[in-house]
From TrEMBL, chain A:
One GO cellular component, as annotated: phenylalanine-tRNA ligase complex
PANTHER family hit by this protein: PHENYLALANINE--TRNA LIGASE ALPHA SUBUNIT (PTHR11538:SF40), PHENYLALANYL-TRNA SYNTHETASE (PTHR11538)
Species in which this protein is naturally found: Lophiostoma macrostomum CBS 122681
Keywords per UniProt: Aminoacyl-tRNA synthetase, ATP-binding, Cytoplasm, Ligase, Magnesium, Metal-binding, Nucleotide-binding, Protein biosynthesis
Region (Disordered) residue spans: 1-20
Protein name per UniProt: phenylalanine--tRNA ligase
InterPro entries in the cross-refs: aa-tRNA-synth_II, aa-tRNA-synth_II/BPL/LPL, Phe-tRNA-synth_IIc_asu, Phenylalanyl-tRNA_Synthase, PheRS_DBD3
Major subcellular location class: cytoplasm
Cell compartment(s), UniProt: Cytoplasm
NCBIfam families (UniProt xref): pheS
TrEMBL record, chain B:
Subunit structure: Tetramer of two alpha and two beta subunits.
Catalytic activity as recorded in UniProt: tRNA(Phe) + L-phenylalanine + ATP = L-phenylalanyl-tRNA(Phe) + AMP + diphosphate + H(+)
UniProt subcellular location: Cytoplasm
Family: Belongs to the phenylalanyl-tRNA synthetase beta subunit family. Type 2 subfamily.
GO biological process, one term: phenylalanyl-tRNA aminoacylation
Protein name per its UniProtKB record: Phenylalanine--tRNA ligase beta subunit
Matches recorded under Pfam families: B3_4 (PF03483), B5 (PF03484), PhetRS_B1 (PF18262), tRNA_synthFbeta (PF17759)
Native organism: Lophiostoma macrostomum CBS 122681
């Protein structure tokens, strides 16, 4: 079923396409002359068009061709004039000979200023003319205009074999050199006088008709990209978040209920043994809430409780034993008073900070500055039935920072908490080594640090190959007894805490230098769409 | 964290050896301070102009390392070049202490005062500079910009005790402030320093008080007007022999910490440390100040060994702790107990946990045995709302939409006026102290962020399709924290045409994935038991009239309105500076939990 609307698309079809004509011209000429040289046989067709036509034919094995790089000597405008009218010196000699005698001041009027200037000197040097007072008179009767002859030769052959002369002419701005690409073309193994009709694609009709068997398929261009996919994309930060969540899940961590941006000073600071005069509680560092005005004192939260119960049901079923577990119900008022005491007077083996503790300050509402506020709540719940447990969260936190390339008022905190009996500091290091190795960071170093709610506190350093130095990649420690014991957790239960921001490792990993290019409304959608899948363990 | 610059050559001399930058960095790392910069490696002209300095970051609770003296001393002790000095008081030969009497009136503004006298101190230019710089560091950090504590230092030989600490109306206090020539009263002084870059920021501490704190000598010479400035009369110089230090405060604990720090850092340059007799009967604060007796604490050998994973004998623990400045002796009554004497420099030590950490530092954090805490298996679980949110995110992306992550905080206008919405005062969480108008409230809708994202991406070809799954916040007075988050899903499409059917299609797709069937409104209203969602035309000023709809759902026999979609009103486009039509959908995901 050749032709027609349903048939395969023949090539070439469009007669308006110059390319198509060139293609046909090449085939036609090859029929009688082989090999052909494009610079001679098609001098007027621009090189890119020739190339396109040859490629089209070569991809079908209809021709083979070789590329020739040649240097051509071309005349400048001045030189072309010389070829037409004669050299400057010839023009001078000619006029002097014709007139018999020419005043030097008259000369420019007769031959033009340029020829008069250059031609006079050369004509003297060639002994064609001489001075006679203020005038010029001829010496030679017959002269040979060599300059013009040489240039004429160059114009005809586009070459000049005398290298010294070539340099001289270039200096005199009479010729220029230029690269010319041309092709030597011969017949290919599938040469024919016409491009056969080709089909661009396999179609259902061709399958049905069996036409595919004899069809001549158009070659596929493997140098081009495929079709653009109409794809959506997940945000790079959330892709990194997904990787971290997988790491936590693999280690048996339960996700913490972090769905409240606002917390009280109590949960965000006081319960963490952060004194009320601590710089973190400054207006400069923390967003305080003006409306609503004030939190309630800590009290039961049945909804969140039920959520965690449901999440931990699996763990309880799996580790259920016949022995009855003692549970101790939480006394929120006692907790509140114990926190006050441990700050103001000292308690639980601590001398405390010894300052007048303010309930108002404690009940101020803040935008949580860390998700450790939620960890605190979860650990207090754990005191009801102290048992080994692991919790994590990745969620938004807020700081009243002045915004710059590395600081935003919002970022994501990754936090992990491990509670168990008899934990050691070296164990935390070992855990973190394993944790960070899953991101491809090996060989951690730990620096003693200060943090009001952990003791010991350790900054985690990893070696950054790209930067060639150790960089801080997170914080960690064991929660202070002043934080844990008021909750009612037993003295021998110890709790690791560690945290890092989601943005920082992402920025380091993907070479993003400005946090505003990663989080917030100024992020470029192109970055989101083209950011590769996140595989922290790779590269 | 404060950063302290110290002279490199002087510090290495004090440490009795030269260090390469790397070696010193390593020492800092092990001890828990941080070498920020070695200016000998700097090329900046201001660094080249002076002898090389080491800029060292000090943890915020180590007030005993805020000057050259403290850094040198603590590192020397750590390197076992010396034991931490013991500081003792020596009364004057006459036996009669200088007295400072505190007036009850001071309790109206700044009730506490402490002090000490350093006799026959030998200042050099370096020591003098360090002395001044330490006061500044203490004022900035521990003293919270002088609000809690402030220090005044005086040449004792220019004044005459006994001294009094009073609180008087500002007009009645007259003196020449430090480095000034003109006498002024308290009120004039406030005006005079109003524009002062350095002192201006402290004026607020007392400005509005009816009485200002002031310290006089027996001839009514003003020593200082705490916490603002000292008098010029009693200023210390390089030649000062006897220094009187007075420290006023709101905080009883911190005033003594500051006193201890000054004594511990600079007592070594003096012949004797002489206590001051503080008379303050009205608040039971009469005492001799300071008290330099080390604090005694108990530490359990078991605890120290267990947490570090070591098995050290009490004697070995004691010798390691000495490197951190403690004096330790195993208790005579209990083998498991160490009697730990905590020096006055270590105000940060509150609990045996702090001693345990110092034990670990002295041993070397990075040498501790690393044992995996695999005590028990655990069962992982995702938070249900996050799991749900992720499902919706994946489906939206799979439908060809791009996820964006704008900020939670936004301006009041973006959240209300620009969307043609009214603030009823009962909805939005408002911030008390934002630095810019960009952060006035917690968003109650995902739309402002999506529209701002479209605005920032105007240069891309349309249509642009974006979505977000994240939390918004609301006031909720039934909650302990008086607020709650709500997980929303929202999407916006900007193109040459409205894209209304695009957001509608995304809604249908999402509902299909959440197993909620489409029902017509009539069916939904007629049949209580029929679960599914339907849409109802809705007039909403955010949207073009007649082109918005409420999304209703019946789940378990309950009807909910979970969101709205429609073509944005051109006035909204105008506010967000969007050149093309935009359609949006936003739903609350919580009902699907």
């Amino acid at each position: 079923m050749p032709g027609g609307t349903r048939g395969p698309v023949p090539v070439p079809l469009e007669s308006s396409n110059r390319n198509a004509n060139v293609t046909q011209d090449v085939l036609d000429l090859l029929d009688t002359k082989q090999p052909l040289h494009t610079s001679e046989d098609f001098p007027s067709i621009p090189q890119p068009e020739i190339k396109a036509a040859l490629d089209r034919l070569a991809s079908r094995s209809m021709v083979v061709y070789e590329t020739r790089d040649e240097e051509q000597v071309l005349l400048t405008g001045e030189a072309e004039t010389i070829v037409e009218e004669g050299s400057h010196e010839w023009k001078v000699w000619e006029v002097v000979k014709r007139e018999g005698k020419v005043g030097i001041k008259e000369l420019p009027k007769l031959v033009g200023a340029d020829s008069a200037k250059v031609g006079q000197g050369n004509a003297f040097k060639n002994k064609w003319i001489k001075k006679d007072g203020d005038s010029l008179v001829p010496v030679a009767d017959e002269v040979k205009d060599t300059t013009r002859d040489i240039l004429q030769g160059i114009q005809d052959t586009k070459t000049l074999s005398d290298a010294k002369l070539l340099t001289d002419l270039k200096k005199r701005k009479l010729v220029t050199l230029s690269k010319v690409i041309s092709y030597t073309v011969s017949k290919g193994e599938k040469y024919a006088k016409e491009i056969p009709v080709e089909v661009t694609d396999l179609t259902a009709e061709m399958l049905a008709s069996g036409e595919w068997e004899s069809a001549n398929f158009k070659p596929y261009n493997f140098n081009a990209l495929g079709a653009t996919q109409n794809s959506g994309a997940l945000h790079p930060l959330n892709k990194v978040r997904a990787e971290f969540r997988t790491i936590f899940f693999n280690q048996g961590f339960v996700e913490m209920p972090t769905a409240h941006f606002v917390d009280s000073g109590f949960w965000n600071f006081d319960a963490l043994f952060v004194p009320q005069q601590h710089p973190a509680r400054d207006m400069q560092d923390t967003f305080f809430i003006s409306d609503p005005p004030k939190a309630d004192k800590p009290r039961p939260d049945p909804d969140t409780e039920a959520q965690l119960d449901a999440m931990e049901a699996g763990s309880r079923r799996l580790f259920a034993s016949s022995a009855k577990r003692d549970t101790k119900s939480r006394d929120y008022e006692q907790y509140f008073q114990d926190i006050k005491k441990v700050h103001q007077d000292g308690a639980f083996g601590s001398i405390g900070y010894r300052y007048p503790w303010s309930e108002d300050e404690c009940l101020r509402l803040v935008l949580r500055t860390h998700t450790t506020a939620v960890s605190t709540w979860v650990l207090h719940r754990l005191a009801e039935d102290p048992r080994p447990a692991r919790y994590f969260s990745i969620d938004r936190v807020f700081r009243n920072e002045t915004v710059d390339a590395t600081h935003l008022a919002e970022f994501h905190q990754i936090e992990g908490v491990i509670a168990d009996f008899g934990l050691t500091l070296g164990g935390l290091m070992r855990f973190l080594e394993d944790f960070f190795s899953k991101m491809g960071i090996e060989g951690l170093r730990f620096k003693p640090a200060y943090n009001p709610y952990t003791e010991p506190s350790m900054e985690i350093f990893g070696y950054h190959v790209g930067l060639g130095r150790w960089v801080e990649i997170g914080n960690s420690g064991m929660f202070r007894p002043e934080m844990l014991e008021p909750m009612g957790l037993p003295r021998d239960m110890r709790v690791y805490g560690f945290g890092l921001s989601l943005e920082r490792p992402t920025m380091i990993k993907y070479g993003v230098s400005n946090i505003r290019e990663l989080l917030g409304h100024r992020v470029d959608l192109e970055f989101i769409k083209t950011n590769p899948a996140v595989r922290l363990d790779k590269n | 964290m404060p950063t302290i610059a110290v002279d490199k050559a002087a510090l290495f001399k004090a440490l009795e050896r030269e260090y390469t930058t790397e070696e010193f960095d390593e020492l800092c790392f092990e001890f828990g301070i941080e070498l920020d910069e070695d200016t000998s490696q700097s090329k900046k002209p201001e660094d080249l102009a002076q002898p090389p300095q080491l800029k060292i970051e000090i943890p915020a609770n180590r007030y005993d390392m805020l000057c050259f003296e403290g850094i040198a001393m603590n590192l020397r002790v750590f390197l076992q070049k010396e034991k931490l000095p013991k500081w003792t008081l020596s009364p004057p030969p006459s036996g009669k202490l200088e007295t400072l009497t505190i007036d009850e009136e001071t309790s109206r503004v700044r009730p506490l005062c402490s002090g000490v006298i350093l006799r026959n101190i030998k200042f050099t230019q370096e020591r003098y500079d360090s002395f001044i710089a330490l006061q500044d560091k203490l004022h900035q950090n521990l003293a919270r910009q002088r609000t809690l504590v402030s220090i005044g230092t005086h040449d004792l030989d220019t004044v005459q005790g006994p001294f009094t600490y009073k609180a008087l109306p500002p007009e009645e206090i007259e003196f020449i402030p430090l480095n000034q020539t003109k006498k002024m009263n308290g009120k004039q002084l406030m005006d005079f320093y109003e524009k002062d870059k350095h002192l201006g920021r402290y004026l607020h501490i007392i400005r509005d008080s009816p009485v200002y704190p002031v310290i006089y000598d027996s001839k009514r010479t003003v020593l200082s007007l705490p916490p603002i400035i000292n008098g010029d009369h009693s200023k210390i110089t390089l030649n000062t022999k006897n220094v009187l230090i007075e420290i006023t405060a709101l905080d009883k604990t911190k005033v003594e910490i500051v006193n201890h720090m000054l004594v511990a850092m600079f007592g070594g340059y003096a012949e004797s440390i002489e206590p001051l007799n503080i008379v303050s009967p009205h608040n039971n604060e009469s005492r001799e100040s300071p008290d330099l007796t080390p604090r005694t604490m108990h530490a359990e050998v078991d605890y120290l060994n267990q947490v570090t994973g070591l098995e050290y004998s009490p004697e070995d623990i004691a010798s390691l702790l000495e490197r951190m400045g403690y004096t330790v002796s195993p208790s005579k009554s209990d083998k498991n107990i160490l009697d730990v004497s905590v020096p006055i420099t270590r105000a940060d030590v509150l609990h045996q946990a702090d001693i345990m950490e110092d034990f670990a530092i002295a041993y070397g954090f990075n040498k501790l045995p690393r044992v995996y805490p695999n005590k028990s298996a655990a069962v992982a679980a995702p938070l249900p709302i996050n799991k749900l949110g992720d499902i919706v995110r994946f489906e939206a992306a799979a439908s060809g939409w791009n996820e964006v992550m704008p900020l939670i905080l936004c301006s009041h206008d973006e959240n209300f006026a620009w969307l043609n919405r009214k603030d009823d005062g009962k909805t939005a969480i408002k911030l008390a102290n934002p630095k810019t108008a960009e952060y006035q409230i917690v968003r109650t809708s995902l739309l402002p962020g999506l529209l701002k994202t479209l605005n920032s991406n105007k240069h891309h070809a349309v249509p642009i399709k974006v979505f977000e799954v994240s939390d918004v916040g609301f006031k909720d007075l039934t909650q302990e924290r008086k607020t709650k988050n709500e997980r929303h899903f929202a999407a916006a499409v900007m193109g040459k045409t409205s894209g209304f059917e695009q957001v509608h299609g995304l809604l249908d797709r999402t509902m299909l994935m959440l197993k909620s069937a489409f029902v017509t409104r009539e069916e939904g209203l007629k049949n209580e038991k029929l679960e599914g969602y339907w849409i109802e035309e809705l007039e909403d000023s955010t949207f073009l009239t007649g082109h918005s709809a409420a999304i209703k759902i019946n789940i378990a026999g309950k009807h909910h309105t979970i969101g709205v979609f429609g073509i944005l009103h051109p006035s909204v486009l105008h506010k967000f500076e969007l050149p093309y039509p935009v359609s949006t959908v936003e739903i609350n995901l919580e009902v699907f939990l």
